[in-house]
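Section: protein folds

Sequence with per-residue tokens
===
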Amino acid sequence: MKSRAYIIIGSMLLLFASCGQQYHAEKTVEAFVEANMVQPEKIMGCDYADLGTTRHINDSVINIMRQRGGLGFKKDITYGQMPEGDLFYLRMRYICEGDTLQNTFYLNQELTEVVAFK
């Protein structure tokens, strides 16, 4: 009986921790978009996918994403430092001037900086 209670409590703690990461990542992306989109006031209906991790993004891919930027974003964006190890990613879907658009943002392990997006 006690072991079940420990399993349930442990599961709930993990759930709350992951919800906190999701929230933190969304706030980091929101701030990035607000600071770097040409007309952020035209964005409506933001929807985020679940936060994920990847180790398939290397420095050369990050450099390419940084050079390309994205539709509606400024050209002189300042990004976070090149990370080491896994990255988190967060997909954001939104409506801008009647079009449904989507970007994927790659964040450092602390979820404090966007290091690239596509």
